[in-house]
Structure formats: structure tokens, C-alpha cells
Amino acid sequence: MHQLIIFGPPGVGKGTQAEIIAAKLDLEHISTGAILRQAVSEGTDLGKKAKEIMDKGNLVPDEVMNGIVKETLSKISKSGFILDGFPRTVEQAEALSAIFDELKMNSVLVINLTADENEIIDRLLKRGRSDDTRETIMNRLKIYFESTKPVKDFYEKKGIVIDVEGVGDINDISEAILAEINKS
Ligand code: AMP
After folding, report:
1. Buried (b) or exposed (e) across 2-27, using 16+ Cβ within 10 A?
2. How many Å apart are CA 126 and CA 148, to the nearest integer?
3. pLDDT by 10s per residue, the chain, length 184
4. Rounded to whole angstroms, what are the CA distances from 32 to 3, 64, 146?
5. Which CATH number does the domain housing residue 104 bear?
6. Which atom of ligand 1 is nearest to the CA of 143?
7. Is the overall model pTM greater than 0.90, yes or no?
8. Cα–Cα nearest to 30, from 95, 74, 89
9. In this structure, what are the phi and psi dihedrals at residue 115, rounded to the nearest 5 degrees?
């Protein structure tokens, strides 16, 4: 069972790559951002709470996200999963480790997509999602460096991170990721 986490700054292409890898390896693509956007569009209680937070580029509380991910991981029916957008804090990473233990998922690999900061800002501005204003982008990057980047160190200590350059041709990047998964 492939147990993958795709990691990296906002705009590095996690969503695009996760979708390609999920299709190729028959994995469940678990995008916490997509789950939240769906909740917002359906106007559920979660959606109502999340909208304002997302519009500002802030993080939805850990307990809420941990619950969503636990529920989703418990129901995997495909030949594995790729987590996209989670964990985003060390607290979430710790909760995820406990979930993995409980579900006996013990061969997790973290794909760390890398890119230059200016390249990322450029990409985000071009994307034009409703939370892609310059102000929100700068806040999302600040939160990434403050709260999310330490998650990489958390996984580095476990020795399960592989770095893949996230700049270049989309298919070349997917091939590089697949090659690393096959090596592991
Ligand atoms: P994304 O599509 O991954 O860029 O996520 C869009 C927005 O959803 C983020 O800016 C956060 O407001 C929220 N979000 C997604 N995943 C998480 C998470 N793991 N923890 C907290 N907030 C999240």
C-alpha cells in the first residue's frame, strides 16, 4: 500500500502532482484544501467556519483538520493514498503519526517539492483562486515558513523525506516523483 505525503510551500504544485500520481498508482488523493472548499461550497457548518479563515490565508484549527483526516484515512479503499495539504503544523504531524499507528500504516514516504520563493509567488498570482490575492499569498507564505516548514524537520528526523525539484515540466516532475517512489 502506497502511503504518501506530498509536502512543500503553497503554489509549488502539490495538488497537480498529487492528482497525477494518484491517477497513475490508483491512490486516494486526499487534499484537505479541496475537502474544505467543498464544505464551503455546500455551506455546511464546517464550510461556514472555514471560509473566513481560508479567505485570510490562515490555518483551520488542528483539531478540526485532524478529525477530517482521521475519518478519511479510515475509509481508504484504493491501493493507498497521497495526502496533499496535510500536515501543515507539527501538532498535525504528531496527530497523524498516532493515526498511522492506529491504522497500522507504517511505510510512509514524504515527497518534498522544492521551489524558489519568487517562482512560487508568481505561480500563485497567476492561479487566480479566490484566496490568491497578494495579501493572502504573503500571509500563506509567512504561515508556511513559521508553522509548516518545521513539519519537514519532523519527518527529516524520521528519515522518510525525499526531495524533488518542483520547477520544470509537469510530466518530468511526475516522472521524478514516481522514480523516487519506486526506489523506496
Ligand atoms: P490548499 O488548497 O492546500 O492551499 O488549502 C487552502 C486553505 O485551506 C489553506 O490556506 C488553509 O486555510 C486551509 N487548509 C488546508 N489544509 C489545511 C490544514 N492541513 N490545516 C489548516 N488549514 C488547512
Report:
1. bbbbbbbbbbbbbbbbbbbbbeebeb
2. 23
3. 999 999 999 999 999 999 999 999 999 999 999 999 999 999 999 999 999 999 999 999 999 999 999 999 999 989 899 999 999 999 999 999 999 999 999 999 999 999 998 889 888 888 878 888 889 999 999 999 999 999 999 999 999 999 999 999 999 999 999 999 999 8
4. 16, 11, 19
5. 3.40.50.300
6. 10
7. yes
8. 74
9. -165, 155
179, three cell numbers: 522514480
Closest residue by Cα to atom 10, ligand 1, is 57
Task: Calculate the alpha carbon distances from 37 to 19, 30, 32, 147, 168 in Å.
Answer: 16, 13, 9, 21, 28
Atom of ligand 1 nearest to the CA of 86: 19
| CA 160 – CA 162 distance, rounded (Å) | 7
Domain tally for the chain?
Answer: 1
Which residue range is the domain that position 34 belongs to?
Answer: 2-183
- Give the residue, out of 60, 83, 140, with the most ligand 1 atoms within 8 A of its beta carbon, to mutate for a pocket test: 60
Q: Please state, in angstroms and rounded to a whole number, the distance separating the CA atoms of residues 39 and 50.
A: 8
Helices in the chain by DSSP H: which ranges?
A: 14-25, 32-42, 45-56, 62-74, 90-102, 117-127, 134-143, 149-158, 170-183
Cell of 157: 528526523
Residue 144 in contact with ligand 1 by CB distance below 6 A? no
